[in-house]
Design brief:
With 337 residues, this protein is of the alpha+beta class. The protein folds into 3 domains: 4-113, Rossmann fold; 124-140 and 212-336, ATP-grasp fold, B domain (D-amino Acid Aminotransferase, Chain A, domain 1, 2-Layer Sandwich); 145-209, Dna Ligase, domain 1 (2-Layer Sandwich). The protein has 13 helices and 15 strands. The strands form 3 sheets. Strands 10, 11, 12, 13, 14 and 15 form a 6-stranded antiparallel β-sheet that branches. It has a 5-stranded mixed β-sheet with strand order 3-2-1-4-5, with helices on both faces. It has a 4-stranded antiparallel β-sheet with strand order 6-9-7-8, covered by helices on one side. Strand 14 (287-295) and strand 15 (298-305) form a beta hairpin. The model has no long low-confidence stretch (mean pLDDT 91).
Length: 337
């Protein structure tokens, strides 16, 4: 069994969530100072970083981390060759960490790592596929529309979807941290969002009707011997006129986060039941976090995160604190798996 003394925290990367990853690594390192720190640059090179250097980095959610020393390995495949006997605590968020690619390399190399395996990671990272699986297993989801190439045909289809639902949410099919999120209430906003996304490097988008309710997120913790527990629910309360975007999530701008969520026991039980069911359905390992909207008719699944944020501002640490479990104890249990 691996321990914190023979573990490596991997963070950074090239995804749009790389800044969040640095903040998560700072929090992990503060709680687990004996773990090594490896930083992956946007170009993919690996740098060995000291806890002191990482801790000294200020404003991580807005400022890129730049290691002082030269690279240790040109890419992750080169670094993998020296990890044997150690465990990797994956603290990447977004593409590299959560789409299953990294996990596949580690599985092939027979290296221990925290979090879900490659198949579950790949499935969970695809919001459309996750919702389809949930729906087929009688878990509550809302209808949706996929945009792949942002052609004129898709523009017409999108307009029809908007006309039907009057207010929609547009979000990347595979991304997190509310990056690239649009909430659209008028035809002009719809056109602007469509053109703005198209002008960038086009990635597939998911469009859903905006549903009114309370924003709830629930962590799931796999303990020893495969025992699963649902962590306390958290609620995001958004100031009127604002939305739960990157600034709201990480800079405390226009939102309030409440853990445990001020909802009834029946509502909490229902949300936790859904989080546990989706975790198992996807085949997640170790831990996950499911986001949902709690409506008058009950909760509806938005997505599941296989490597949710671990910064001081993140929900998993909040939920662990609510049951008096330290991040250190949590990751000792993860390594024991």
């Amino acid at each position: 069994m691996n321990t914190l003394n023979d573990s490596i925290i991997l963070f950074g990367g090239s995804s749009e969530e790389r800044l969040v990853s640095v903040a998560s690594a700072q929090n992990l390192s503060r709680n687990m100072p004996e773990a090594e720190l490896w930083f992956m640059s946007q170009e993919g090179a690996i740098y060995k970083v000291s806890a002191e250097e990482l801790a000294a980095h200020v404003d991580p959610f807005m400022t890129s981390f730049k290691p002082k020393q030269s690279e240790a390995y040109k890419d992750f495949n080169s670094a993998v060759k020296v990890i044997a006997g150690k465990a990797l605590i994956i603290c990447l968020h977004g593409t590299e960490g959560e789409d299953g690619t990294l996990q596949k390399i580690l599985e092939t190399s027979q290296i221990n790592f925290t979090g879900s395996g490659s198949e579950a990671s790949s499935l969970a990272f695809d919001k459309k596929a996750t919702k389809a699986l949930a729906k087929n297993n009688d878990l509550p989801v809302v209808t949706d529309l996929s945009l792949k190439d942002f052609s004129e045909t898709e523009k017409v289809t999108l307009q029809g979807f908007f006309d039907l639902h009057k207010k929609v949410v547009m979000k990347p099919l595979a991304n997190g941290s509310s990056v690239g999120l649009y909430i659209v209430e008028t035809s002009d906003q719809l056109t602007n969002a469509f053109n703005e996304i198209k002008s960038k490097a086009v990635c597939p988008y998911l469009v859903e009707p905006f549903i009114t309710g309370r924003e709830i997120t629930v962590g799931v913790w796999e303990q020893n011997k495969g025992k699963l527990i649902a962590l306390p629910c958290s609620e995001v309360q958004v100031v009127e006129g604002r939305q739960f975007d990157y600034a709201g999530k990480y800079l405390g701008s226009g939102v309030k986060e409440l853990t445990p969520a001020p909802i009834s026991k029946e509502q909490s039980d229902e949300c936790q039941k859904i989080a546990l069911a989706l975790h198992q359905l996807i085949g997640c390992k170790g831990y996950s976090r499911t986001d949902m909207i709690l409506t008058e008719k009950g909760p509806y699944i938005l997505e599941i995160n296989t490597l949710p944020g671990l910064s001081k501002a993140s929900f998993i640490p909040q939920q662990l604190a609510a049951i008096n479990v330290s991040l250190r104890t949590f990751f000792e249990s993860q390594l024991s798996l």
